[in-house]
């Protein structure tokens, strides 16, 4: 008996004949949006920084701005406020995170959750709250004048660099606490109990057991706060601090008040370069810290 003829499967040419979209083509829409929204305006700023008001293209705007006393003063002010605010946020954030993580108290978990919510607050909101408390006509000065009968209260520091520093430390401390709380959650409490049973004082336990575990988180949080402080504009503007000109404030002053657009673009380019460098440092540190 002859075997039945073999039936070959139907050809799939009809399905394979459809053109396939290359993988790289899927990246074109987001790259185009990124280029239009971010890269193109940034390129315009860089281009304007090389075009003085006299016309043409030259490095004269950079020579004029980088050698000016106002730029050097703004650079120094930006640097010391950013560094001081970062150090203050690191110290305060470490202490507060220690209390939340290792000192049981009612509402501790709610406070820890509030830290995440606080990170979404705008910076000017904190400055506004400080103005209500320590401003010239704020609550503290009002209470002082009511009690003493003085013409004005003693709290006049918000319009000084110290007011800017206080506002930045207050606002950026939770940015340090968040990675610290995550790091503290991974510490084995048995180590703390053993150290305590051996007679170690709390300060020694913090120094020898907790701090080594917290160093990567401190480095990641501190580098992030440094970048954010470097670019902070709202706090300086809302405090109305006299004589406090940071790099972002100098960009605003040159562009809006002086109509010196090439000079403003030069300061903006310098600010971006410093920020990108510090952000690269933050990414390296946070990657090593696992943040």
Could you please describe the fold and organization of this structure?
The chain has 291 residues and is an all-alpha fold. Helices cover 71% and strands 0% of the residues. The chain is built from 13 helices and no strands. α2 packs across α13 and α10 packs antiparallel against α13. The longest helix has 34 residues. It is globular.
Overall strand count? 0
Shape: globular
Q: Describe the sheet with the most strands.
A: none
Which structural category fits the helices and strands?
A: mainly alpha
Q: Give the low-pLDDT segments.
A: none
Average pLDDT, rounded to a whole number, is 83
State the order of secondary-structure elements, H for helix, E for strand: HHHHHHHHHHHHH
| Number of H- or I-type helical stretches | 13
**Which value, in Å, is the CA radius of gyration?**
28 Å
Measured distance between first and last alpha carbons: 75 Å
Q: Helix amount, in percent?
A: over 70%
Proportion of β residues? under 5%
